[in-house]
Design a protein that fits this description.
The longest helix is centred in the first third of the chain and has 19 residues. The radius of gyration is 23 Å and the shape is globular. The strands form three sheets. It has a six-stranded mixed sheet, with helices on both faces. The protein has a four-stranded parallel sheet with strand order 8-7-6-9, with helices on both faces. It has a domain of 221 residues: 3-Layer(aba) Sandwich (Rossmann fold), CATH 3.40.50. The protein is an alpha/beta fold. 42% of the residues lie in helices and 14% in strands. The termini are far apart.
């Protein structure tokens, strides 16, 4: 089958559906929040059920065939075109190598230590080194279509970020170029140097504000409500659509059979877990997967409003934002996730289709998060602190009896570990400020060992230095 045959002919109508007042608006307009009530949207295909007439096997074969394509319009998230954004044309689609990230099984030793079969989905292998590229590919493809159809002379994209969102937004804006330009707002001192370097290197306008992410987000929302700018945080429902590809890829990796699978997702601003739930539900509705996997959300005790909500009795749940504390899982430092209304809607649907054990949320400690990252990477993974948060969530859910020993846990490593080396160094040097509540354990600390001092090296001729160095190394290694 040629890529020409595989490129979608299906076009549909899409609309924004408010998760608070149920108002609906055409997807051909640029909306971030509901004009009627200010609520957040989910984007829906008005003709989605028609896709089910083809049957699940048709879609499994189609998506598997597209996965082998070299066509840029089918190589990334848009090989699942019909499930996400079936109003875009080929010329609008942006692909920078995002998606198709691998799922890496853990070593038998780590499985033995944890007491569970587990694997990491390495979304740090996306082009900007985080999962944010999935949503940005969709959002920028939509923006390109708006430029083409409505003749915009300039679109100024704006986002608040703890690091990964700004890196991804700036990269895609730099690639697409005029008339799209990028501005990012960062909480000063709350972004690692590695993450800060990315939007700077992409040429974005980078503005720092005192405080935490939540305040930066409020500023961005004010700008989006009062000026003509394109908001690129997860309040943008096009980003949620792109991030659904994470769920589709998990299903495809396991040959569309997710029985006995438990997917762990860090919650943060709640956009990714919304996308994961929505993606699995779409696959189930079309018969592409016969059963829903279980999904377990994870939150740090330093920012846990969603955990608190689902910990309350069903008939008396009340959502309340929380004041956050510093967290090594920086994307988790969000006390009022903008996507919570989406989570609430999608969790209700998920529990209805998958049963009362199909979704839950666990809370973990900061010490457990950083040591989860260090422990995973000690066995050859490239997990970020959010990946460590997921491993901590697996251990917590096991201790609470929420996981069957025969299930396979799939952990979301949302970014590459190299973005978070500052936290590793703080742990090794016992240099965390008191508010983190982290005390290093010798088993996780690793430092370079000097063979000779500079002074001793300077006393030796080169030949003597080589022989003496080799001798010292032989002693240290017990050769």
């Amino acid at each position: 089958m040629s890529s020409k045959d595989m490129f979608p002919e299906y076009r549909s109508e899409m609309e924004y559906v408010c998760q608070d007042c149920s108002s609906r608006y055409s997807a051909m307009e640029l909306h971030y929040t509901c004009p009627s009530c200010g609520g957040v949207f989910l984007l829906v295909d008005k003709n989605f059920d028609w896709l089910g007439e083809n049957g699940g096997n048709y879609w499994r074969e189609m998506f598997d065939a597209r996965a082998a394509s070299k066509d840029p319009a089918l190589s990334g998230i848009f090989r699942f075109y019909e499930l996400m954004a079936p109003i875009l044309e080929r010329q609008d689609i942006v692909w920078l190598g995002e998606a198709q990230t691998p799922i890496i099984n853990s070593t038998s030793k780590l499985e033995s230590e944890v007491g569970q079969k587990l694997a990491f989905k390495n979304d740090g292998q996306n082009p900007s080194a985080s999962f944010k590229d999935r949503g940005m590919a969709c959002a920028f493809s939509y923006l390109q279509s708006m430029v083409r159809l409505q003749g915009f002379e300039q679109i100024l994209t704006v986002c608040a970020s703890t690091g990964d969102t700004s890196a991804s937004a700036a990269m895609y804006a730099a690639y697409v170029g005029d008339p799209i330009k990028s501005v990012v707002l960062l909480p000063k001192g709350k972004v690692t140097p590695q993450q800060l370097s990315q939007p700077l290197g992409s040429g974005a306008t980078v503005l720092e504000l005192p405080g935490y992410f939540d305040e930066c987000m409020m500023v961005v929302e004010y700008l989006a409500d009062n000026y003509r700018v394109a908001l690129l945080n997860s309040k943008n429902s096009w980003r949620i659509l792109g991030q659904e590809s994470y769920a589709y890829e998990i299903a495809q990796w396991y040959d569309w059979d997710l029985s006995g699978k438990v997917v762990y997702v860090p919650i943060g601003n709640a956009g990714n877990i919304s996308a994961v739930l929505s993606g699995f539900l779409k696959l189930y509705r079309l018969g592409i997967i016969p059963a829903l996997p279980r999904v377990i959300g994870v939150q740090s005790h330093h920012a846990d409003p969603v955990y608190r909500f689902y910990s309350q009795p069903l008939d008396s749940r009340e959502y309340q934002p929380v004041d956050v504390k510093a967290s090594v899982a920086q994307a988790a430092m969000i006390g009022n996730p903008v996507s919570f209304p989406r989570v609430r809607t999608l969790v209700d649907q998920y529990l209805d289709k998958g049963g009362r054990d199909s979704f839950t949320v666990v809370q973990v400690e900061e010490q457990e998060i950083i040591e989860g990252m260090l422990r995973a990477n000690k066995y050859g993974h490239i997990a970020c602190t959010q990946g460590g948060e997921c491993l901590a969530g697996l251990l917590k859910s096991k201790s609470e009896g929420l996981v069957d020993p025969g299930e396979t846990a799939i952990l979301d490593a949302t970014a590459h570990t190299l973005k978070f080396q500052e936290f590793q160094e703080k742990y090794f040097d016992n240099d965390f400020p008191p508010e983190y509540g982290i005390k290093p354990k010798p088993a996780y600390v690793n430092r370079p060992e000097a063979v000779f001092s500079d002074e001793m090296r300077n006393r030796m001729e080169k030949e003597e230095y080589i022989v003496q160095s080799a001798g010292e190394i032989v002693k240290k290694l017990g050769l």
